[in-house]
Amino acid sequence: MPHSLDCLILGGGIAGLWTLRTLLAEGYDAALVETNALGSRQTIASQGILHAGTKYALTGHAAQASKAASEAAAIWRDCLQSPSEPRTSVRGPALPDLSTTKILSPHTHLFTTPGLPSRLTALAASKALAIGPKKLSPPNRPPPFTAAPPGVDLYQLDEPVLDIPSLLETLAVPVRDRLIHANDVELSWDRLPAGASPSEKCPNRTRKTIAIITTDSGTLALHPRVLICTAGSGNEALLAQLGLAADIPMQRRPLHMTVARFSEPGVSVSPLPPRPTGGGESGGLPLLYAHCISLSDKPRATITTPIDALGRRVWLIGGQLAETGTARSPHDQIAATKAELTKILPWLDLSRLEFTTFRIDRAEGAHPDSRRPDTPVVRCEESVIACWPTKLVLAPLATAEIFTHLRALGITPLPSKDPEASPPALPFAHLPFAISPPGLATPPWDREDTPWT
Predict the structure, then answer these.
(1) CA distance 157 to 133
(2) Mind listing the pLDDT tens digit for each residue in 356-367?
(3) Nearest Cα to 268, choosing from 305, 310, 313?
(4) Which backbone phi and psi does 276 adopt, to 5 degrees?
(5) What domains, with CATH codes, occur in the chain?
(6) How many alpha carbons fall within 13 Å on the CB side of residue 95?
(7) 1-11 pLDDT, tens digit each
């Protein structure tokens, strides 16, 4: 017999984990299934920036996207601060405590290359944003901009940058017993015929949505009242199993990201002197969390500085360089990155860098003209919800929209059989075999098979 529960989430990236934490906090009986590692696709490849609207301001279509990003960023700030501090955001259900998440930087920078067009673009973007970017004069600039030549303008943006492995761990550890690592997921759905009456569409009927979960230890059949798909690009195959791929279409926008590090750990970038670092991080690359812009509707390059497994700084390089690089081979993408870094950071000696690249698809709910959606995309077909948050920062809004659909479906937490259990114990907690949780995804630059050149 299938084990019943309120909600089953398929996909353990930022959207799935945030939704699981919130469902459990609201008293729902919920679990999450992941066939790989948590965050293994888009989430672990994210640069970790809680965007406040910079990219959207550059497009000239800033209003809706910037509003959504600003609203979501306020929720993130509440979650990241100590639970004892008052919260300012008011939207949505209970929020997860993320106060132990490592913040790589409290802000990002927007910088220009010398020349009037780039500087005018930066000025226009700064005026389009509602976050009050602060222009920094040369004496107040942090490394590596202390040695920047005249004509390079620098703005400070209120965009925190998170350590993604730390974020995944913070979200996952408190709900470890609700996470299921699966080798395969098989879905079946007794879908209602076209033209069914509203009363027939109530998901509380006895018709079944069954998920057959194959694990290393055995096979588990789950019967959720609502199925929530948050698997990013994996949603396409899940929805196809249910015959919903045409009803809830998705799109992919590919990126070819570049990663750089020093081939000799601890070598410093000229002309910057070695700086003492804390938290076990070794020297080397300067800490850089910045968008370089020019006369374009996208950042020319966006660079963040995650820390690898050995405590070394690496540069993760995205932006327009990653978008145009999808047609290039890894060798050509590395060559293009070297050339671009020389142009945008000409005062730094980067001759001892080594590089690698990786490709990632930005999976999103389909937009009529294939543009990036301005907000999360959440679609509901009867008792199946599919979600794409669009951007890391928009995950809280995606979860809030999922709750809107749950309320519309009339799905509220069922009374617990055990009044002491909050949330109730999983109905399959006493199976004759153990359910193992998935591990955390490894960043591309820490994988043993990553080729560096």
Answers:
(1) 5
(2) 999 999 999 998
(3) 313
(4) -65, 140
(5) 3-44+168-249+367-445 (3.50.50.60), 108-157+253-364 (3.30.9)
(6) 25
(7) 678 899 999 99
- b (16+ CB within 10 A) / e for 105-115: bebbbbbbbee
Question: How is residue 20 written in tokens?
Answer: 């699981």
Those residues whose C-beta lies under 8 Å from the C-beta of residue 317, and which sit 6 or more positions away, are 257, 258, 259, 260, 301, 302, 303, 337, 341
Strand pairing partners for 230?
none
Distance CA 167, CA 169 (A): 5
| pTM exceeds 0.85, yes or no | yes
d(CA 318, CA 164): 16
Model confidence pLDDT, tens digit, residues 57-105: 555 555 677 788 888 999 999 999 977 776 665 555 688 999 999 999 9
Q: Give me the percent of the chain exceeding a pLDDT of 70.
A: 78
Contact residues for 346 (Cβ-Cβ < 8 A; gap 6+)? 149
Using CA atoms, how far residue 23 sits from 19, 74, 93, 98, 238, in Å, is: 6, 20, 9, 16, 21
